[in-house]
Amino acid sequence: MANTGRKITPGQMKRLQVVYGQLARHTQEGTDRAARLAWASQLVCRPIASFSDLTEEDARHLIDTVQGQLGIKATVWPRRRLDRHAAQKAGTEGRRDHASDEITLAGPSEFARIRYVLEMLGWSQAQLEGWLRSPRSPLSRKATPSISTLGDANRVYWALKGMATAQGKWKGRTK
Questions:
Q1: How far apart are CA 119 and CA 148, in angstroms?
Q2: How many other C-beta atoms are found inside a 10 Å radius of the C-beta of residue 56?
Q3: What is the pLDDT of residues 125-165, one digit of tens each?
Q4: Which of 112, 117, 132, 152 has the fewest CB atoms within 10 Å of its CB?
Q5: What is the structure's pLDDT at 161?
Q6: Which stretches within 122-149 are classed as H helix?
Q7: Is residue 42 situated within a structural domain?
Q8: Does the reported pTM lie above 0.85?
């Protein structure tokens, strides 16, 4: 998993300990510290000396993996709340009826939203790039159709979401 630098939260630590205990009872895995750390190290693909060494992303991956193995409904992780100005920009940039003097670069959360819909549609990155160059793309008027601003990301997301909805594949956001 990518190391984002943010340490595991206390809530994630508790949840991870609980679900690992459930997994150990179901699979007769060792419940001792060494077995827990070996299990975590194997899943995050790097040595773990303590659960406190885990990042938020590592913990999320481990918890989701165990819950999947046990058949427990996946945790819905809360999204970070945007401040008022950022929320307004996220909702209005890219609309035809909205002109703004500010330009916001697209960030990881915007690309994650687009990847989510691409997975739903079953598209690869190459298919997305081909579609972006097509005349049916919302970015077709650009000389080089690439997603660089929040407005571009919104237009692409809304178009892909419309396709997923039309095909009956839209499931809404769960992340």
A1: 21
A2: 16
A3: 899 999 999 999 998 888 888 898 888 999 999 999 999 99
A4: 112
A5: 92
A6: 125-133
A7: yes
A8: no
Distance of CA 49 to the CA centre of its chain: 27
What pairs with residue 105 in β-bridges? 149
The answer to whether residue 78 sits within a structural domain is no
28 and 101, same domain (yes or no)? no
What is the domain extent for residue 102?
Answer: 84-166
Instruction: Count Cβ atoms below 10 Å from residue 51 Cβ, excluding itself.
Output: 19
Pair 90, 128 in one domain = yes
Token readout for 23 is 């997994």
DSSP H/E element including 38: helix 33-44
Whether 25 has a pLDDT exceeding 70, the answer reads: yes
Joined tokens for residue 89:
């920009």
Answer yes or no: are the C-beta atoms of 147 and 139 closer than 8 Å: yes
Domain count, the chain: 2
Return d(Cα 17, Cα 40) in angstroms, integer.
Answer: 11
Cα–Cα distances (Å) from 62 to 40, 72, 94, 116, 150, in that order, read: 7, 13, 37, 20, 31
Beta-bridge mates of residue 55: 7
End-to-end CA gap in the chain: 17
Q: Show the tokens assigned to 29.
A: 């895995």
